[in-house]
Structures are given as structure tokens and as C-alpha cells.
Amino acid sequence: MSKKEQIVQIILEEVGTLNEHLPENQQLELSPQAVLFGEAGKLDSLALVNLIVAVEERIEEDFDTTISLADERALSQTESPFRTVSTLADYINSL
Amino acid sequence: MLAGADDSANTKQEMSEEPSGTIVVTGTSRGIGHDIAIQYLSSGWRVFGCSRGEGTIENEGYAHESVDVSSAEQVKNWARSLKKTAGQIDVMVCNAGLAPAASLLTLTPPSVLDGILQTNVGGTFHVCCEFGKIMMRQRHGSIITTSSMAVGLHEEGTSAYSASKSAIVEMTKILAKELAPFGVNCNVIAPSMYETEALQALGDNIIERAKEKLTVKRSLSIEEICSVISFFGSPANRVVTGQVIYLGLVA
User: Fold this and answer.
1) What does the pLDDT read at residue B5?
2) Residue A34 domain-assigned (yes or no)
3) What are phi and psi of B100, to 5 degrees?
4) Where residue B195 falls among pLDDT bands split at 50, 70, 90?
5) Which contacts of B63-69 are long-range, i.e. CB under 8 A and separated by 24 or more positions?
6) Residue A22: how many other CB atoms lie within 10 Å
7) B171 CB neighbour count, 10 Å cutoff
8) Per-residue pLDDT tens for B67-109?
9) Full-model pTM
């Protein structure tokens, strides 16, 4: 499994955990194409922060490295890294 | 019961009956932060503290880290380290702050304002950011920020300091709304007179004038301060959020 695939797996696991706390109509599909935030996204800003914090923690545990997803670099990207599971995984992989 | 000079003894007894847990306090090398840490240690809590310099508390239940809260990076590293070693964090007290000597606004150098805002506002912001994230994940916890009687008194010579402490109140109310869905409450404690070096730095004239304007015209005890922290921090009071409690002052 490539690093990118591992990251996608982590994000999907955390999306699954997040889904347990969301109403049924806000739950996300467990797919790399799942839209997280923005147009057609189901997560509000609080749910997105919750997911970001969870993913940061898992990346730290699994890869033994500390990352900050909500920093200036992420916010300055032309394409938001928080758009889909896949774009988030690409962004994490690039750090 | 009406508040009186002898009430602090009753408060101390109540404090000792609190169930123990884990509390994080910033600015523990001296002043209120130091005394809060000592008080909770004496009640059996584990205390994690920080200050810019070395720690001054020797106790097996206490762990200290040198952290400048105005540095987002240092706060982040400390919080992430604590997350691994502390387990569940029950209460976070954002106490670290600067109280400069009194200076009329028209005579205050920009560097003084910058320093106060970086430490009092920036420091509280960084600590709330990192520990707020931890408590979101825990779905448990209480964040308590520290304002001041200065906000309610509008005393001449405290413009920069009072502005920073007002900002903390607003920041905390917004954070309270953001963290409420995660079962985390956020409140502000605004002590009046407590004998610290920071208080003395405001100058005798300001202290005397302020004392006259207080509703309870005496210094606070650490038991009275910790009683409010325990109230905010109690899981039974999670519904109390976004509130400011002034001690000794009707603001």
C-alpha cells in the first residue's frame, strides 16, 4: 500500500468515526471522492475541524510525525485541500 | 450565604472535597497561576504547568515545561506532548499574562501594546486553539480564561491591559459557542485584588483607587479563586458556558 493509500485509509476511518456523531443526512460516503467541505459538501465548519484534528492525531500516531493541517499553507492553496478525501490525502502526502 | 471575611475557610473545605483530576495551568512560576497549581496539588490533582522560565514548584504531582505562550509553535509542541503523557485533561486554565505598569494611552509606546497583545491575547488564543482541539477529541473538558477587574473599572492608565483582557472575554464567548457541541465549556474568571507582583506593577495609586471601587473591598484568597475554577470545571456544570464571573466586583 502506497503512502497516499495509507493516508486515504486513515481519513476514511476517521470519517467513519465522525459519521457516528452526525445526523444521517449529513453523513459522508466512505469514498476518496467524498466531498468534505465547500459546495456540495456536507460538513459544517465545526465538523470539518473535528475531522482535521482527528486526522492530524492519526497521522502523528501512524507516521510518527507532527503535522498542522489548518495553517497558512493549507489556507493559501488555490484548490482547498479540504475539498474531498482525496485532495486532503494529496495535501498531507505533500507535507 | 453572604460573602464575608471568613468565608474563605469554608471554600477551602469544599475544595478539598473535589474529586481529583488533571488540570493544566499556564503561568505557574509565580502569582495566581503558581498558587492555583499549589492549591490543586494539595487537593490531589495532577497539575501540568508552564511559564517562560524554569518551574518553581517541586511536587511529584506537578510537571513543568518552559513555554512562551505568545509562540504558537511552542504552545503546539507542549500541547501535543501533554496529549501523549497526561491522558485526559479535565480543566485548562489560561492564566499566563502580562500586567504592565500603568501608562496613559497617549503615553504608551507601541512596543508595550504589542507585547501585551501578543502575550495576553495571542497567548490565550494559542492555548485555547491547541487545548480546545484536545478537548474536542475528548468530548470532555473545561477551558477557563482569565480577565480582570480592570475591564469593569475602566481605570485611567490601563488602556492596553484592559483592552487585552476585554479581548479575552470576547474570544472566550465565541470559543464557548464553537466547543459547546463537543461537551466542552469555556468561561472567564475575572479576579479583583490578589496579591501578586503583577498587581503591584500597576502602581499604588491605581491599586488604591481600584480598591475603593470594588464591591468587596479586600484582597481575594486563592481558595475563593479556585472555588470559581472548580465550579466552571465541574462536569455537572457543563451547561454553564460563555460566562464571566467577576470576583469582588459588580461590573
Assistant:
1) 37
2) no
3) -75, 165
4) confident
5) B64/B28, B67/B26, B69/B26, B69/B27, B69/B94, B69/B96, B69/B119, B69/B122, B69/B123, B69/B124, B69/B126, B69/B127
6) 16
7) 18
8) 999 999 999 999 989 988 999 999 999 999 998 888 899 999 9
9) 0.85
Alpha carbons B132 and B79: distance in angstroms, whole number: 10
**Residues of B in Cβ contact (< 8 Å) with A50:** 136-137, 182
Question: Which alpha helices (H) appear in B180-203, and where do they start and end?
Answer: 197-201
**CA closest to A18 among chain B residues:** B137
Q: Is residue A30 part of a domain?
A: no
Tell me the residue range of the domain where A72 lies.
3-24+46-94
- Whether residue A46 and residue B76 make contact (CB cut-off 8 A), yes or no, is no
Q: Cβ–Cβ of B136/A53 closer than 8 Å?
A: yes
Model confidence at B160: pLDDT above 50:
yes
B132 contacts: CB under 8 Å, gap ≥ 6: B143, B175, B178, B179, B184, B186
All 3 cell numbers of residue B249?
466586583
Number of domains chain A is built from: 1
CB A90 within 8 A of CB A16: no
Interface confidence (ipTM) of the complex: 0.73
pLDDT of residue B15: 52
Q: How many CB pairs below 8 Å do chains A and B form together? A: 17
Q: What number of residues does chain A have? A: 95
How far apart (Å, rounded) are the C-alpha atoms in residues B10 and B143?
Answer: 25
Q: CATH number for B21-246: choose from 1.10.10.10, 1.10.230.10, 3.40.309.10, 3.40.50.720.
A: 3.40.50.720
Beta bridge mates, B141: B184
A1 close to B (CB below 8 A): no
- A57 and B137 within 8 Å at the Cβ level: the answer is yes
Tens digits of per-residue pLDDT, A43-80? 888 888 889 989 998 998 899 888 888 777 777 777 78
Retrieve residue A51's grid coordinates: 475531522
